[in-house]
Amino acid sequence: MTTFKDFDLSTVEASATGMDAFFEDSPQEPQPKVAATTRRKVDNVGQLNGFVRTASDTLVHKSSRELWSLQQSPDGEFFIERKFDSDGGPLGG
Asked: pLDDT tens digits, residue range 65-87?
C-alpha cells in the first residue's frame, strides 16, 4: 500500500515569466481614475434597448445597474450621460 504525502504549497517558489517578469521589479504607478465613456449620442430608440426608463430623464442600465440621464441638447439632439463613475462616485459638476 502506497501512502501519498500532501503537497505543502508554502514551500513552492515560483518566478515570474514573460511580461510578468518585466513588471516584477517595476514600481507600480497609481493609475488615474477615469470614468468610462460618460456621454453618448442617441440617434434612435433602438440604442436604448439595454436600459429601463425609471423617470422622464432617468435610465437604469439593465446589466450593470448604472444610472444614466436622458437629455436633449439645445440643437435638438438626444444623448445619455452616466451619473456615476466606475467607483460609484458622482461625476463632476
From this structure: 888 999 999 999 999 998 877 67
**pLDDT confidence of residue 47:** 87
- All cell numbers assigned to 53: 426608463
Count of structural domains, the chain = 1
Containing structural domain, residue 73: 36-88
Q: Output the pTM of the full model.
A: 0.53
d(CA 68, CA 26) in angstroms, rounded, equals 38
Q: Domain for residue 51, yes or no?
A: yes
Rounded Cα distance, 41 and 88, in Å: 22
H helix or E strand, kind and range, residue 18: helix 18-24
Convert 61-89 into a string of H (helix), E (strand) and C (coil). Answer: ECCCCCEEEEEECCCCCEEEEECECCCCC
Whether residue 31 is contained in a domain is answered as: no
